[in-house]
Amino acid sequence: MTPLDAFWTFLARCDELPYSGVFRIADGSSIDGPWNNCQQHADDTRELDYILCKPNYQLFEIDGTTFAVVRGGDQCLEGFEHVDFATASAYSDEICTHVGYWGIARIGGGGSIDGPGYGCGVRATDSRELGDAICVEIE
Fold this sequence. Notes:
Blueprint: H1 3-10, E1 22-24, E2 30-32, E3 40-41, E4 50-51, E5 57-62, E6 65-70, E7 80-82, H2 85-90, H3 92-99, E8 104-106, E9 112-114, E10 122-123, E11 132-137
Parallel strand pairs: 1-4, 8-11
Antiparallel strand pairs: 1-2, 2-3, 5-6, 6-11, 7-11, 8-9, 9-10
């Protein structure tokens, strides 16, 4: 988790961290628990026992079906598979809002779906390497 992510995540929710913990965040920084009001420290060289990570996926639901956008790779979570071209096409307006405004994500069959900045287009094949994936829960 970046220092900026940690700041905004715990700004009003500092009490969600364990009270006396000190947690490693990105860029060699750390953040204290509520005992020190979630104060951040840049360039913290101490050896810390805890790391705060930001999930690399987001779950969302469309018509009772659970989907996931997975950031930073084209693999799906366990229990999920790439959404197929027909489903991505049918729900492109809903799915593309989760891709990211200027994002492009992998779908099944080697295809892709664009974010809203690119008009939510869906391709059956796309040979480019893409950094995200759109997946659907396996029934």
